[in-house]
Amino acid sequence: MALLLTLVILQSATTSDRTREIGEILLNEWPMLMSHDSGTGYISEKTFLWQLSKTQDGDFTAQLNCGVRAFDLRPLCNADGVYMHHGIQPIKYRIEDVVKDIITWANSHAEEFILLVNSHYSPNTDDCKGKVWQTMATLNLMPSIGSDGSCDRLKGLTVSQAMKMSTLKGGGHVFVVEGEGMCVDANYNASLTCWRKDRDCHQGSPGSEDINRELFNYINETASKKPKANHLAMNQAHWQYDSASLEKMLKAGSNILNDTKLSGVNKKLIGIIPQLVYINLLEVDDACLYGVELEEAWKSSR
Would you give the DSSP letter of residue 223? Predict the structure, then answer.
């Protein structure tokens, strides 16, 4: 009996120490799977030219179940309210409604930490930003870090402190921050396209090894840099697209989701997680493609 009690105490102490260690990790060094252009999961494949804009397969609840913990929100403000967009493609779902779904999920997963990243406002005006922030306030979320023009509250912020700041009344944690161009370093590299002059990223096609090597060199290089003290850091582990590459993609009968699958990028990420020194927001296309496995890889390496 004494031996059993000792083992229970030791196990409890180990668990407590581990929890404390995790809580002391800086937020900008805490790894999270981020869905690129998260709102495109609501775009139907019946939408005209969905192939050019749909980077996710599944709504926000589905993405959360796939391991996503950070959302790339791109607000669109018009006369009817606050919606989402991907470039010129409007997404006819209100931000209020989709964020409610996130809150509902968070309430039943009280131990999880979820991040909402606001960027690419359309239009990029104080009025639109104010409407988005008011929507968040109506849902009883914390004021967005950076909405006052400063990112300094991120400096030295630990995961434990961030969780306290973002605690929801119904349980769970949803942290809100102004993203690219404000409090998140995007580490954008436009040259990392899937479709080149006479090559593409699909495994087995001519030149695909070199193209994939370029992307993974970028991922490793970006992960070797310590984040700025008052910024979160994004690692864009997905293909970039310009007008020329999109045209080639369409002519080949492909789409962004298909490029992600056939290049094998998400699957390859699983194997390199342990070697990534600084990883904060690992942004991917089609987050439900190996998202759960990526989350498990992080848990094993923490």
Answer: T
| Distance (Å, whole) CA 255 – CA 36 | 15
Is residue 14 in some structural domain?
A: no
- pLDDT on residue 5: 35
Cα–Cα distances in angstroms (integers) from residue 241 to residues 1, 53, 194, 248, 257, in the given order: 64, 10, 7, 10, 13
Query: Rounded mean pLDDT of 188-199?
Result: 96
**Are the C-beta atoms of residues 120 and 91 closer than 8 Å to each other?**
no
Whole domain around residue 148: which residue ranges?
Answer: 26-301
Distance in angstroms (rounded) separating the CA atoms of residues 73 and 116: 7
Q: Classify residue 144: in a domain, yes or no.
A: yes
pLDDT in tens, 117-139: 999 999 999 999 999 999 999 99
Residue 239 and residue 297 in contact, taking contact as beta carbons nearer than 8 Å: no
- The predicted-structure confidence for 232-288, as pLDDT tens digits, reads as follows 999 999 999 999 999 999 999 999 999 999 999 999 999 999 999 999 999 999 999
Residue-wise burial string across 152-189, b where 16 or more C-beta atoms lie within 10 A, e elsewhere: ebbeebbbbebbebbebeeebbbbbbbbbebbbbebee
CB 190 within 8 A of CB 240: yes
For residue 15, being part of any structural domain is answered with no
- The domain that holds 57 is classified in CATH as 3.20.20.190
Angstrom distance (rounded) from CA 242 to CA 192: 10
Q: Report the domain count for the chain.
A: 1
* Sign of the CA dihedral running 267, 269, 272, 274: negative
Cis peptide before 123 (omega within 30 of 0): yes
**pTM of the entire predicted model:** 0.92
Domain membership of residue 10 (yes or no) is no
